[in-house]
Amino acid sequence: xxxxxxxxxxxxxxxxxxxxxxxxxxxxxxxxxxxxxxxxxxxxxxxxxxxxxxxxxxxxxxxxxxxxxxxxxxxxxxxxxxxxxxxxxxxxxxxxxxxxxxxxxxxxxxxxxxxxxxxxxxxxxxxxxxxxxxxxxxxxxxxxxxxxxxxxxxxxxxxxxxxxxxxxxxxxxxxxxxxxxxxxxxxxxxxxxxxxxxxxxxxxxxxxxxxxxxxxxxxxxxxxxxxxxxxxxxxxxxxxxxxxxxxxxxxxxxxxxxxxxxxxxxxxxxxxxxxxxxxxxxxxxxxxxxxxxxxxxxxxxxxxxxxxxxxxxxxxxxxxxxxxxxxxxxxxxxxxxxxxxxxxxxxxxxxxxxxxxxxxxxxxxxxxxxxxxxxxxxxxxxxxxxxxxxxxxxxxxxxxxxxxxxxxxxxxxxxxxxxxxxxxxxxxxxxxxxxxxxxxxxxx
Length: 444
Hints:
This protein has helices at 5-19, 29-39, 56-67, 75-95, 103-110, 124-133, 145-160, 186-192, 194-213, 221-241, 243-254, 256-265, 273-289, 297-317, 335-341, 346-378, 387-413, 416-443; strands spanning 43-46, 51-54, 171-173, 179-181.
């Protein structure tokens, strides 16, 4: 059974959901284990109360274990594990020529060795040290199998969805600057994949560069300006790459009165095989006469699709966009997550405004070409009911509406930065449509 246009559209949009997560994460093993150590940095000593305090991440795991009826290790075990971490971190600092650091500075810079062992194998040090401590402590005071499974799954889960590690400059990033990430190179980007090297890394580089250039005392303003300028550059390159296809599309739009005449000539082409063939032949002759190739529109989608995926990956992965906030909103946070979980907070209002602006702009940008075609068709009257034209128009409206609904659904999973990108991109599309059509009418 052949797929109709609506089914093909649904498959294409569904594929977009799948491929949107196909760009590789730029988080290295060191980046990941730094985040893991930030989640569980061990026990800390409170000089005032003279007791050891459990950090929030570890306490959350202990509480979950207690709720599940799982035995937990003793405080003595955790202190012994912390001593092994400090010893290994101190050795790492000495190897890097930083032997004069305090214990606190050593752990801040090299505490990630708790989870990263030789040859960059995640969890290998933790497994090794826990195994060693099991010979020094009663088994009841060490992690059993159930607790080890819970502990590892919770630590992995805490960092699994974080992808904002793309930066050219090593430094502290994250909502509160809590993570130290190593700078990434273009060569490393190509090692992760062709799309990552050709598109994702350059876009993230532009965002970071413009963010530094637009340094502002207003929190997050430089990030928004960086997104705006990056959008202009990306969309400008896309317009240049697809200029001929865009002109062909506008020519087809201007030919709508002629196409309407042909459809009036063959009003039953949707059910009559002979009329359908004749209509197709005369439409192709009309396109050929005016130098229009309807298949050129495929080029636009061919260019836009990977670029959209790459921009999505870059804005999700950009470390500078994940740092700080704009009007209370972290720009790497998904719009839908903020809208559904932070009712009436400052970031909720910011997310709502971005989402509504993006939605309105996308709606007008998608509908404008159809509105212009409808206006052109009205120039051609018909004295009889045109079943073919009505069926074609109805199918086009259905496809447009389905795509718009899918875009709204996708908008909830977009990082907030992509909401800004889509809003500006839609405005550019509107301007491009109106300007190109005006120039074509003048030329005509």
